[in-house]
Design goal:
Elements (H helix, E strand, L loop, with lengths): L7 E5 L5 H11 L5 H13 L10 E6 L2 E12 L8 E10 L7 H8 L6 E4 L7 H6 L3 E4 L1 E5 L11 E5 L11 H12 L3 E6 L5 E12 L2 E11 L2 H6 L1 H9 L5 E6 L8 E4 L5 E4 L13 H5 L2
Parallel strand pairs: 4-5, 11-12
Antiparallel strand pairs: 1-2, 2-3, 3-4, 5-14, 6-14, 7-12, 7-13, 8-9, 9-10, 10-11
Helix pairs in contact: 1-2
């Protein structure tokens, strides 16, 4: 008798698969705990997803057993009349003995022409692979600033947007929803108010590792434009100092005029491909606020 060829297939991840997905990702990323993945998957389970798109991503199976996973995080950055679908290609792992089938995951995950795909955590050794898939770098590095050393925004006051807020005065409803849902995910959502205009920002607590020491900092997750952060840097810097945070990490393609700090391209490269133009200063609804740094 001729032995049957083992069945390899790729399918969407469903709720019953979450334990297996967490197990695979814990195996593939040993520096991350199972609780890290389970917490992020829970947040994915409860968030709004554009209609018709996968909630979690795709699973690779061998004879019914999970052997690979690619997490996808879909969001709509457009309007009701004009959707703008974005997808963060997040954590990707395939068991070593099935790596020949890994392209099945990437091909099915990137097949929709109306979607703008982003990869915000590509390891340096994978950059040639990512670029071969049609991605182009829109962010080359990061700028680490010390905003308290800036005089910009003096006289402004800061409103802390909490997770139980219902609306934010002077902020459009869709942007207010963004501030509130990121606050629910543990981010710091604020509005800097002055006589000129309100400036919404979302920041996330992170740590900058220098050798064995991990210094507390904040990652800029959302702003309308990086120039908005520069314009209120002094006010936000003093606000953060009272919370024990000295520096803010911002996506950048070089030094940012008006900020005190330093630029590096040794980390922070981010990629995108699709119909929309990715911009600096918008990491909303991606793996960072959902899963953590």
């Amino acid at each position: 008798m001729t032995a049957l060829k083992p069945l390899i297939r790729c399918r969407e991840i469903g709720d019953p698969d979450l334990n297996a997905v967490a197990e695979l990702l814990t195996r593939g990323f040993p520096r991350r705990s199972r609780g890290y993945w389970s917490g992020g998957l829970h947040r994915q389970a409860t968030r709004a997803v554009p209609h018709g798109y996968p909630r979690y991503g795709y699973l690779l199976e061998h004879d019914g057993n999970p052997v690979g996973v690619l997490l996808l995080i879909y969001s709509d950055r457009g309007t009701t009349l004009q959707p703008e679908i974005w997808c963060n290609l997040s954590s990707w792992y395939v068991a070593p003995e099935f790596r020949n089938y890994a392209t099945m995951l990437t091909k099915i995950a990137q097949r929709l022409p109306e979607v703008t795909y982003v990869n915000i955590s590509a390891a340096r050794q994978t950059w040639p692979i990512v670029e071969a898939q049609g991605f182009r770098a829109y962010c080359e590095g990061i700028f680490v600033s010390v905003p308290s050393l800036s005089f910009a925004g003096l006289g402004a006051w800061i409103e802390h947007v909490t997770a139980d807020a219902q609306a934010v005065q002077g902020i459009p409803s869709d942007e207010a929803d963004l501030l509130i849902r990121h606050a629910r995910n543990g981010c710091l959502s604020v509005v800097i108010r002055s006589e000129e205009r309100p400036i919404p920002l979302v920041l996330q607590p992170v740590r900058i590792r220098q050798g064995r020491v991990a210094l507390p900092a904040m990652q800029l997750i959302y702003c309308r434009d990086v120039s908005d952060y520069v314009a209120c840097a002094g006010a936000i810097g003093r606000f953060l100092l009272r919370r024990g945070r000295v520096s803010v990490i911002t996506d950048a393609n070089g030094p940012i005029p008006g900020l005190v700090g330093f630029y590096t391209d040794r980390r922070g490269r981010k990629y995108a491909k699709g119909p929309q133009q990715a911009r600096l200063g918008n990491l909303s609804d991606t793996e960072l606020p959902l899963y953590g740094p």
